[in-house]
Amino acid sequence: MGLDVYLRLPAVQHALIAATLVAIISGLIGPFVVTRRAAFAVHGVSELSFTGAVAGLVWANNAVLGALLGSLVVATGIGLLGVRESERDAAIGVTLAFGLGVGVFLLSRYHASARAAQNILFGQIFGVSNGQLVLLLAVAGAVLLAILVLYRPLLFASVDPEVAEARGVPVKLVGLVFLFVLAVTVTEAAQIVGTLLVLSLAITPAAAAHRLSVRPAVVAGLSVLFALLASDGGLLVSLTGLNSTNVPASAFITAISFAVYLLARLLGPRLVRRRKVRA
Amino acid sequence: MAETATVRLRNAALRFGDRELWGGLDLDVAPGEFLAVLGPNGSGKTSLVKVLLGLQRLSSGTVEVCGRTPQRGSTHVGYVPQQKSFDRDVALRGRDLVRLGLDGHRWGIGLPSRTARQRVDQAISAVGADSYADAPLGKLSGGEQQRLRIAQALLGDPSVLLCDEPLLSLDLHHQQATSALIDERRRATGTSVLFVTHDINPILPMVDRVLYLAGTKWAIGTPDEVMTSERLSELYGTQVDVLRVRGRIVVIGAPDAAHGDLDGSHHHHPVDDDHDHDHDSSTAGPHSWV
Questions:
Q1: Residues of chain B contacting A149 with CB distance shorter than 8 Å
Q2: Structural domains of chain B, with CATH
Q3: ipTM of model
Q4: What sign does the dihedral A60-A63-A65-A69 (CA atoms) show?
Q5: Which residue in A262, A153, A161, A146 sits closest to A207, CA to CA?
Q6: Architecture of domain A3-272 in this structure
Q7: Contacts of A279 in chain B (CB under 8 A)
Q8: B79 forms bridges with which residues in the sheet?
Q9: Distance CA B41, CA B263 (A)
Q10: Looking at chain B from residue 134 to 163, which residues have their Cβ under 8 Å from any Cβ of chain A?
Q11: Would you call A102 exposed, middle or buried from its count of C-beta atoms within 10 A (0-12, 13-18, 19+)?
């Protein structure tokens, strides 16, 4: 089948819409994750959304709902345990280890489908139902709105927390809300690329963008662009003849994402240095 | 003077648990006055700044800034924090940092605005930072970053400028340039300056009065009144010698008032920054100001 034939299939259309939505919100939160050095928090939340997803499968046969609830619980936990920055990584590590253990336990009690568990870990983009798409749309809308509202105080609190607090930014509250937004975004991204590969959409595009510009708005724009390129691009590549052995789309998504990052690292120093000389 | 004081403290005290940082503090700062706040680590200098920013409540007594109880985010107050370099890779230009001082605390993304841009440009020009305002913030020197922080703090045309060790880790040239900038500004616009520092020498020519905090005691007056052996010995309760050497003030024998205790004023810096500086004199005590 050619690509044009695939594109007429509802399953493929759903997948493309989902991949686009996830890329937009992941690309938007990415720069904040990089600036706040929260990559480990992203990893922690996504790994633990696995536990939530398995719990969801076991008790309600609904992995997404479980993952969503699980990641919110985890975000709250990280927010409460890791109040001080120096404690944060340790708090995430502790929660992560325990949570994954629970996930393994739950998985051993779930015999319905080994495939389902694998999909949680590595992503299954083509199984997006109408209901899931509606949920994804609602969640993406909420995340988008939250980031737009939080944008300036979050930026201020991320780069210069002391002055931000003095200027009246509720730094702790903003940090906690960001953690929730992050948790929800990560859960959504996990549906596309799997919990193990979330970083390829939530960090890599933003890290590449950081190499190319120091203007906050440009960084945000590039980050979303790179996330879209990886997400939709990886999905489309997985449908073409290049993919004769049915490799999951997430493999291509991470590959494109990484390639963009490598390119940005190669080109970035020149771009940014030149700009400084001119200034 | 008391009628128009920009900062007014009456019988103010600050305690953390059963440890008193300072008590019975009365202070009036006049418009355009340059007040140096001195004292050893743990004497509550930074906490005083936090009180004036509305981030810390007094244990007792009253405080007013421009006639009102301090509130977080007040436009009457500008704040220049301890000099601390930004990440080399932070995705911000110099002008973006200054802009945050204008509307970084507002919700929403903030649309481009000509007025805002002009105000940011003016603030940048006023501190002479035009040539590097568009460069990556993380790649600027400490002195350049500090100039931009001052531009950010002065953007709202505050009545009071609070500076918490703004010269820390700057070289001598940048120390002079930074303090001269603050001095010019307060003379031009009548902004009161509260300048927290462990070393009075870089700002000695411009200081009107000194507030010296030590133990739970304090002294206030001109540098000539406060920076004397008698006065500081009395504050510290031990023999302290104040020498004038070639226009500089050298304090010898002042003990560390922190008693190894945790000081509420240094949450973000549990490690004592001051130990890194001014240890060029072998005769000086651990906390002398050379």
A1: 107-108
A2: 7-289 (3.40.50.300)
A3: 0.85
A4: positive
A5: A262
A6: Orthogonal Bundle (1.10)
A7: 131-135
A8: B162
A9: 8
A10: 134-139, 149, 152
A11: middle
- From the CB of residue B90, how many other CB atoms can be counted at a distance below 10 Å? 22
Q: In whole angstroms, give the CA distance from residue B89 to residue A244.
A: 41
| Residues contacting B90, CB < 8 A, separation 6+ | A35, A159, A214, B136, B137, B138
Q: What is the pLDDT of residues A147-180, one digit of tens each?
A: 999 999 999 999 999 999 999 999 989 999 999 9
What residues contact A208, with CB distance under 8 A and at least 6 apart?
Answer: A222, A223, A226, A260, A261, A263, A264, A265
Lateral strand order in the sheet of B19-29: B19-29, B7-16, B60-65
Query: How many Cα neighbours within 13 Å face the side chain of A29?
Result: 35
Question: Which residue is associated with the tokens 């903030």?
Answer: B110
Token pair 């109880």: residue:
B69
* Domain locations along chain A: 3-272
Q: How far is B198 from chain A (nearest CA, A)?
A: 20
Instruction: Write out the H or E segment, with its range, that includes residue B214.
Output: strand B209-214
Per-residue pLDDT reduced to its tens digit, B182-214: 999 999 999 999 999 989 999 999 999 999 999
Per the rule left: phi > 0, alpha: psi between -120 and 50, beta: everything else, B45 is: alpha
Residues of B in contact with A163 (CB under 8 A): 79, 81, 100-101, 149, 152
